[in-house]
Design brief:
The complex is a heterodimer. By secondary structure, chain A is mostly helical. Helices cover 78% and strands 0% of the residues of chain A. The longest helix of chain A has 35 residues, at 258-292. Classes of the chains: A mainly alpha, B mainly alpha.
């Protein structure tokens, strides 16, 4: 998903409306567009619209009342805390891994790239299971943690760890192509002129990769706040204690509190909308940067 | 990843491998330490736990009736869903690259919705819309078709979450495709069908297959949206990740680990397949 490359391309070759040399072009075009809209309508648009309609079907008042329940507010707090820890950790890791891969050529480079991608390929439930086997009561570190009185599984640390696991690849994935495109000449010039590693990073590398990095951070955050499967395995889903927003949605729905479920779902859907809007903005900004260069 | 020429700084080339290994720069250290703790350690924990079960017992649990039925439901449904998205994803990518129409930007941005929307919300709204009294589900009731809480519902959730992959892998390739080649084929007397089959289609096959494989891998592992829209009844619409979760809830660690290991190994195979497909797709890069 090299969106940077895609947007750069779409600018250099502006999409010219296709003037079909053949007469049937026009109706083929509109037929294909109609199929696209119909298919996306069934899969995406109608379900997305339904979230908002269901949430406000009882009126605006009940909607806000649902959002004031202590269980919901606790889940918001927990979701924000988890994202606030997991996202910075993965940003630092993503930058380090991206630099290591983009600036070095070594045997097994492709293998390392695949290894970093692994959390995308592994089922979230399996990811959660792995950490239960590691930190759970019967896990490798279970007895040690038990005597030390530290709880990881069914508590906040475990939820942060699995969230960090499932969101691990995003930043590295987005930064590597930008670093490769940038090349190392500017950094070498800075070092020749006497800049330290930190100065080179802050003043030369970071300004060049900022849009790719920001995009990676946005995706990391969206997934961190929305992760369900992995967090569900390690959380124990204790209302008011280890229940994040996605877990709250499922729990409310299972207990036939559909209005509560939809009120929380609207907040998460808005998070998705904000993510998509930010992504558009970042893509446009990086396109402008491309043109200026 | 575009391969550029190796870095010109080769003064370190004479340093020994061990020297380099023990004098890694900070980013390398962070990368290795983090990957070791977060990835190698948990994968090792699960594989070793699976190994302690013993081969005979492992095989027995991995192939018991319920486990086998969940593999069939998971893989067949995921395959059908990713194949459908292979067809419609190609069509959507084509429409987005080649045509202009009002609202195109919104449609383009909305394709990423399954990446951005939390899976629990996706499951919740799909379950409602495709239920017997939902907006779309109610249309199928007269035909005697139930979607939510059946295997069709599982398929809908998998269609939703695997939608963006084909579109996003295909779009850059379609944009790269030079229209001159098509016009040349047309000038040389090729029919529209011939132009499509012999000129346009061949370079699109690797990215479409890559997208299908990525979508399939995602659909096989999906939990959040499926667990909500499915009835989770064994032999009907119970998928393998939900089985892992259920066994874990019953403190059946061996049972969960064995099925989890089967899923992990399949993920690894899919990752290799995807890499091979991507390398195959890149063979066209050199001709540009």
């Amino acid at each position: 998903m090299t969106t940077e490359a895609k947007s750069a391309l779409s600018y250099t070759n502006p999409p010219t409306p296709r003037t079909a040399p053949r007469a049937q072009g026009a109706w083929v075009k509109w037929l294909l567009i109609s199929i696209t809209i119909l298919y996306l309508g069934l899969i995406l648009f109608i379900p997305a619209l339904n979230v908002f309609v269901e949430a406000f079907s009882g009126g605006v008042g009940p909607f806000f009342d649902n959002l004031k329940s202590p269980a919901f507010l606790n889940s918001v707090k927990l979701t924000v805390i988890i994202a606030a820890i997991a996202v910075p950790i993965n940003t630092v890791f993503g930058l380090c891994a991206a630099w290591a891969i983009a600036r070095n050529y070594f045997p097994g480079r492709t293998l390392l790239l695949s290894i970093i991608d692994l959390p995308f390929a592994i089922s979230p439930v399996v990811a959660g299971l792995m950490f239960v086997l590691l930190f759970g009561r019967n896990g490798w570190f279970g007895p040690v943690l038990d005597t030390a009185g530290i709880r990881i599984i069914f508590a906040l640390p475990g939820m942060v760890i699995v969230t960090a696991f499932v969101t691990m690849p995003f930043v590295a994935r987005e930064v590597i192509p930008v670093l490769e495109e940038m090349g190392s000449e500017q950094e070498e010039a800075a070092k020749t002129l006497g800049a330290t590693d930190w100065q080179t990073f802050w003043r030369v590398t970071l300004p060049n990769i900022r849009w790719g990095l920001l995009y990676g951070v946005i995706l990391t955050n969206a997934r961190a706040m929305g992760e369900f499967g992995a967090v569900s395995v390690v959380s124990g889903n204790i209302a008011g204690k280890t229940q994040t927003m996605p877990l709250f949605v499922e729990e409310a729905y299972k207990q036939y509190k559909t209005p509560e479920a939809y009120s929380a779902a609207v907040i998460l859907a808005l998070l998705a909308v904000v993510t998509l809007v930010l992504k558009e903005i970042v893509e446009r900004k990086s396109r402008i940067t491309d043109v200026q260069e | 990843m575009t391969a550029t020429s190796p870095s010109p700084i080769s003064s370190k080339a004479d340093q020994s491998f061990w020297y380099r290994l023990t004098h890694l720069s900070l980013p390398w250290k962070v990368t290795w330490v983090y990957l070791s703790i977060m990835l190698v350690l948990p994968v090792a924990a699960m594989l070793l736990k699976a190994a302690t079960v013993g081969p005979a017992k492992f095989w027995e649990i991995a192939t018991d009736e319920i486990a086998l039925s969940t593999y069939v439901v998971t893989f067949v449904t995921a395959f059908i869903a990713s194949a459908i998205n292979g067809v419609f994803g190609t069509l959507i990518a084509w429409v987005l690259v080649r045509y202009d129409f009002p609202g195109k930007r919104i449609v383009d941005a909305a394709v990423d919705l399954p990446f951005a929307l939390p899976t629990a919300v996706a499951g919740l709204t799909l379950a409602t819309v495709y239920s017997d009294n939902g907006w779309i589900g109610s249309l199928f009731v007269p035909l005697g078709i139930k979607i939510s809480f059946t295997r069709l519902g599982v398929g809908m959730a998998m269609l939703f979450i695997s939608l963006p992959f084909v579109v996003r892998t295909l779009q850059p390739v379609l944009q790269d495709l030079e229209k001159e080649t098509e016009e040349a084929a047309w000038c040389l007397g090729a029919s529209p069908l011939q132009t499509f089959l012999l000129v346009i289609l061949p370079p699109l096959i690797p990215p479409v297959l890559t997208g299908v494989a990525l979508g399939f891998a995602r659909a096989v592992g999906e939990y959040g949206s499926v667990v909500i829209i499915a009835g989770n009844v064994p032999f009907q619409d119970l998928i393998a990740p939900v089985l892992v979760f259920q066994r874990l809830e019953q403190y059946d660690y061996a049972g969960a680990t064995v099925v989890g290991t089967v899923l992990l190994l399949i993920s690894l195979v899919l990752l290799v397949v995807i890499n091979v497909l991507q390398t195959w797709g890149r063979r066209y890069d050199d001709r540009g």
